[in-house]
Design goal:
Blueprint (H helix, E strand, L loop, with lengths): L9 E7 L4 H12 L8 E7 L4 H11 L5 E4 L9 H12 L10 E6 L3 E2 L3 H11 L3 E5 L3 E2 L13 H13 L11 E3 H6 L10 H11 L3 E4 L5 E3 L5 H21 L14 H33 L9 H29 L1 H13 L5
């Protein structure tokens, strides 16, 4: 940013909905402490819970940090969850005297940004006028050891996202990203109708011909779910959102929303959707196999010896392919992380 004489304005949206006020305030203060020029920065706490305590605490901090603002919308019957909250902030800044900033940055309530967060991301958007969104990985400071549920998302950010990047199909991760407002205007704001507003937004942008990028820098750190129940809830929301987005995008095959998607971008999206759907078959097998054993039913049903051999060949091929997958992943992430991802497939079924 030192080489840029007049850095563009950035509006930071911190979305929250009933999280611990201390957590939200920590994120807000970290955003205000960015090394980005303060005269080009505004920070908005978008509170969907309408917390009086949070409002008062933000007002107190605002005396020392005038760039910090508190906003809470009046929700109707159809409030569109996080997308609705983001759209509220997106529309609100239009009414301000300075008008909207050309770039919007978003943070989850528990994601602490690095001081160099914006300075590392905004130049990419300045350099490439066709770049709509840039996304850093989400990292966590309280990942348990051993990470049996793969909560650290190491495989995703060490392997999956870089692969999507090579296919021109980077997805918005929901926090830490910076988006060009002109690109958001071109799609009418943050897409609604699904619980995967981040994924939905990036796919609609790609379908309009905009570019998205992944930057492999540790620029934000947050917290993982603190219980098995909340982890399953989070994973379920992600996978349901992914399937909802696929339906909204007509499975990336046809329609106006996918006109400008390349073949590789369509393949990347379809593969990810298929993986979410295969979790259902994993869950069914985990339920039916023990049930069959309890009822004394045969685990292998085949009419003859030749059929048994075919089934055995398929089982061997499946086991070998699974271990080949673990081997390839371990080359990139290490054996321990690769095995954690494999175990998580079963520990968190049908949500992993």
């Amino acid at each position: 940013m030192r080489d840029i004489k007049n850095p563009p304005d950035v509006d930071i949206f911190i979305t929250c909905a009933g999280e611990d006020p201390d957590t939200i305030i920590n994120t807000a203060e970290a955003a205000c402490a960015s090394d980005y020029p303060s005269n080009a920065l505004r920070v908005f706490v978008l509170d969907d819970s309408g917390s009086e305590e949070l409002s008062k605490r933000v007002s107190t901090i605002k005396r020392e940090r005038p760039i910090l603002h508190y906003l809470a919308r009046k929700k109707g019957k159809v409030h569109d969850f996080k997308a609705g909250n983001l759209n509220f902030g997106y529309q609100h800044v239009k009414k301000l005297n300075r008008g909207p900033a050309p770039f919007i940055a978003a943070l989850d309530a528990d994601m602490i940004p690095s001081p160099k967060w914006l300075s590392a991301l905004v130049p990419h958007l300045i350099k490439d006028a066709n770049l709509a969104l840039i996304q850093p990985p989400q990292r966590f400071y309280d990942v348990p050891s051993p990470d049996l549920l793969s909560q650290g998302l190491d495989v995703n950010y060490c392997m999956t996202e870089p692969l999507r990047e090579t296919m021109g199909s980077t997805w918005c991760g929901g926090s830490g990203y910076v988006i060009r407002r002109a690109a958001l205007d071109s799609i009418g704001g943050f897409p609604t109708g699904t619980i995967g507003e981040d994924l939905h937004c990036s796919n609609v942008l790609l379908g309009k011909g905009w570019k998205t990028r992944h930057v492999d820098e540790r620029l934000q750190h947050g917290r993982v779910p603190d219980s098995y129940k909340t982890h399953i809830k989070q994973q379920s929301r992600w996978h349901v959102g992914r399937i909802q987005v696929a339906v909204a995008m007509r499975f990336y095959i046809f329609g106006d929303k996918v006109k400008k998607l390349s073949f590789r971008q369509r393949c990347a999206a379809l593969i990810a959707t298929t993986l979410s759907l295969t979790n259902i078959s994993t869950t069914v097998s985990l339920i039916l196999l023990p049930l069959a054993m309890l009822l004394g039913r045969p685990l292998v049903i085949s009419p003859n010896h030749q059929g048994h051999r075919r089934l055995l060949s398929m089982v061997v091929a499946a086991v070998m392919s699974e271990w080949l997958d673990v081997y390839v992943v371990s080359l990139i992430t290490g054996y321990k992380i690769a095995m954690s991802e494999t175990y998580a497939t079963y520990w968190a079924a049908p949500c992993k």
